[in-house]
Every structure is written in C-alpha cells, then in structure tokens.
Amino acid sequence: MHRSILFLVIGIFAGGIISHWAGRMIPSAAAAPKRPEAKSTGTLKYPLHSTLYRFTLNKSNMDVYQQWVRWHHEAYQPMIATLEREKMYFESVFRDTANEPGVIYWLAIDGEGGANSTSSTSEIDKKHVEYMKQILVKGSRVTLKTEFTLIPSFIDECIDRHQQTEK
After folding, report:
1. Residue of 89, 59, 80, 60 lying closest to 128 (CA atoms)
2. How far is CA 45 from CA 22, 80, 163, in A?
3. Which of 148, 155, 137, 151 is CA-nearest to residue 7?
4. Cβ 58 vs Cβ 135: under 8 Å
C-alpha cells in the first residue's frame, strides 16, 4: 500500500515538473501563431527511456547525503548544464521519509547515447560521483521495471525539435 502511494506521488510530481518545464519551453497559445497541430516525426535521434532506480543510503553518511541535497539546490544551473551531455531530459530524486528513510528513488527520463557522469572530466560531475560513493550502499541499486511511460505529444514534439537542432 505504501509503495503504491509513493509511486502515485512520484507520477504526480513528475507530471507537474514536466508540465511546468514544457510550459516554459513552448510559447503560450496566445503568443504563438495559429498553425495546424504539429506531429512528431516519430524518428527521435535518441529514443526516450524512463527509468526509476532504488538506492539504499549509507546510514553512517546521512549528513553527507544532506550536503549532497543542498549542493543540488545551490548548484542548480551548473547541474542543468550537465544534462545535455548525458542526453537527460528529466531527473528527480525522491526520499520516502515516512516508511523507508534510508532509501531514495531516482527517476530519469533520458535519450540513448548519453555520456555517464563517471566518464566526465567536468568538476561538477566529479564532485557528484564522489558524493555518490559516500552516500550510497555499494551494490544496492535496483532498477524498477518500467511498465509504460506516457509522454504528451507537446513534450515529444519539443524533444524532437531539440534533437533535430543538435550539432
């Protein structure tokens, strides 16, 4: 029961974030010229994957975990700048503070072929990897099975346009 509620909350949160992001990326109907509804080419350069991971936190480093969370808030723009290289379109971390406070869930929506942060020469990625080594229990990663992903056409079209303009 508790996990069902967690997944419902994750879905609602993810939908809200994606809607907010899309609302900022796509001009409003009032500002946009009238045109026929666009259709995705259906040929995304990097097909999308939606993945939810589960990690166990290292209980002896919970203070480091809190530092990591604060760091993400403080370094938001530099973090966003790393997403392009990773072909990451959305990433969010959740913590079940009521039932499993030692567990985080990591939701990622990304395209194929993105670079991994462990192979990056970026200082922000190196710091991220060091945090991960300290806060996660090695070998605790579980990839939850994706049953389906619903992506509204306006987001699909926006990603398609973005991929078509990549160098």
Report:
1. 80
2. 20, 21, 6
3. 148
4. yes
| Per-residue model confidence (pLDDT) at position 151 | 84
Q: Is 128 exposed, middle or buried (0-12, 13-18, 19+ CB in 10 A)?
A: buried
pTM of the predicted model, to two decimals? 0.71
Is 93 strand, coil or helix?
A: strand
Q: What is the pLDDT of residues 19-32, one digit of tens each?
A: 444 444 444 334 43
Two structure tokens written together for 117: 């942060």
Q: Which residue has the tokens 């605790």?
A: 140
Q: Percentage of the chain surpassing pLDDT 70?
A: 74
Using CA atoms, how far apart are residues 114 and 110, in angstroms rounded to an integer?
8
